[in-house]
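Narrative of accomplishments. A recurring question from our advisory board has been how the design workflow behaves on a single, concrete structure rather than in aggregate. To address it, we present the structure tokens for one chain from the evaluation set, followed by the sequence designed for it. No filtering or post-editing was applied between the two.
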């Protein structure tokens, strides 16, 4: 399904038409000389968009919101949220616009959304702009997670604006065009609840059910079923983050999706040395969003979602709270089941391995990771080699914490299964920074090379050894900043 023309009437505004109370019609700032930096041709094809059109001057203007199809009205979406535990009643798209929804090749609605498109009524004094480096960061890490099989928003394109963005120093500006199943967040529901209009909240919930969790429509209590479906999606998502060593870095409720997709790549990064206390964000001084805290924070965010749904779940608020609390208390078990199943695959432990034995082995492996402070990705990949008989590399990595290796090998781990879930290549932090620095200076070569490697994370290829290696020893701890 592809076109040789602009999106035209394929771009719809269902969210804006169904929920006008949560959408402010707005226009992107005019970009005088947009320059396409990177285009995701595979994703364009999924959306039925012609890459040749998107590369044309008209298409590039479309990608920054300046060439809007007739009948289409971009909107800034309203939402609130808890940021680092503090409630902010009015956040919204402060530098973003929803262009509309497209049906992809499978007939599924997908949001086409801009980031860095200029100030909106939600900007709170900000300039609404974005810089090349942070937009390319979201592009590379979101596409890496997609290749790893983790639910995520996708990146369609990054376009340079030719305009300087003032941060600590002037930086080249850019707009990111991204794609999502939707941009509905826990914060969207918090905002709707804060209006005091139960019918707006109900319409939002019905919209979410229809778009993401249609099975809830047939439940006896559809809004409780919606809560349970989102809870399951988030338990699965966060388990997948933990299994690949991903640290989101800013798990505010406005960054918690109803679809169960990863969204808003700010101070995100991947583990090098394994440590549950790992924090990459410069502003997370208390470690609220540390790697090991992510499951707990997900449950906390879901509690806020439940609070927003109280008027819909039961006419009696006390009954509603009881029902939602009972469902929420099931989160740890659902997360644990998803994580344990993932760990069994990472360790190659098939159904022939008893659950108690598997639990014991998983515990020993986790302790070895913590005690050895070893590289997370390298450990599991070397363990994959050990399943084929070459256990020297993993023993060398672990030092003295190897007494369990022979017991694990005796369980006949499935090396092929392990190879399919333990990546060779992840967006290693030092390589991402190297690529972004070069791109900001005008050289996209390292960025393009990194993208090519990360597109096949489970396939080891000769000549790409530097992409497997951890950061050089002795360097300063990796830190990301608010705005990256």
């Amino acid at each position: 399904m592809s076109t040789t023309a602009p999106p035209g009437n394929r771009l719809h505004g269902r969210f804006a038409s169904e929920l006008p109370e949560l959408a402010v019609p707005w226009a992107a700032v005019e970009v005088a000389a947009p320059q396409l930096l990177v285009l995701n041709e595979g994703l364009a094809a999924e959306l039925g968009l012609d890459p040749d059109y998107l590369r044309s001057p008209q298409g590039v203007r479309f990608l920054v919101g300046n060439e809007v199809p007739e009948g289409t009205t971009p909107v800034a979406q309203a939402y609130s949220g808890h940021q680092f535990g503090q409630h902010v009643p009015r956040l919204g798209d402060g530098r973003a616009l929803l262009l509309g929804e497209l049906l992809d090749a499978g007939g599924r609605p997908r949001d086409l959304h801009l980031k860095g498109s200029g100030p909106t009524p939600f900007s709170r004094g900000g300039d609404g702009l974005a810089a090349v480096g942070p937009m390319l960061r979201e592009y590379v890490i979101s596409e890496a997670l997609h290749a790893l099989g983790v639910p995520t928003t996708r990146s369609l394109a990054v376009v340079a604006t030719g305009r300087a963005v003032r941060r600590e120093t002037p930086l080249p500006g850019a707009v990111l065009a991204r794609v999502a199943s939707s941009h509905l967040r826990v914060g969207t529901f918090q905002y709707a609840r804060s209006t005091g209009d139960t019918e707006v909240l109900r319409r939002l919930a019905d919209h979410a059910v229809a778009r993401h969790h249609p099975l809830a429509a047939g439940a006896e209590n559809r809004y409780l079923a919606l809560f349970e479906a989102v809870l399951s999606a988030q338990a699965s998502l966060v388990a997948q983050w933990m299994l690949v060593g991903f640290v989101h870095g800013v798990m505010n409720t406005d960054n918690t999706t109803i679809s169960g997709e990863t969204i808003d790549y700010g101070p995100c990064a991947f583990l090098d040395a394994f440590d549950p206390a790992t924090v990459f964000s410069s502003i997370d001084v208390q470690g609220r969003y540390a790697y090991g805290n992510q499951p707990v924070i997900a449950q906390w965010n879901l509690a806020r979602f439940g609070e927003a749904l109280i008027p819909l779940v039961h006419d009696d608020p006390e009954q509603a709270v009881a029902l939602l609390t009972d469902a929420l208390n099931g989160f740890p078990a659902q997360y644990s089941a998803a994580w344990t199943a993932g760990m069994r695959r990472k360790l190659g432990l098939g159904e022939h391995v008893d659950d108690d034995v598997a639990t014991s082995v998983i515990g020993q492996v986790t302790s070895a990771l913590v005690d050895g402070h070893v590289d997370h990705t390298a450990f599991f990949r070397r363990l994959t080699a050990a399943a084929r008989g070459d256990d020297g590399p993993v023993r060398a990595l672990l030092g003295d914490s190897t007494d369990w290796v022979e017991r694990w090998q005796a369980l006949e781990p499935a090396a092929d299964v392990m190879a399919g879930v333990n990546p060779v290549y992840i967006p290693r932090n030092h390589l991402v920074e190297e690529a972004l620095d070069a791109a900001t200076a005008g050289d996209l070569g390292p960025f393009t090379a990194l993208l090519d490697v990360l597109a096949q994370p489970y396939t080891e290829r000769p000549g790409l050894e530097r992409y497997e290696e951890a950061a050089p020893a002795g360097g300063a701890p990796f830190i990301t900043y608010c705005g990256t």
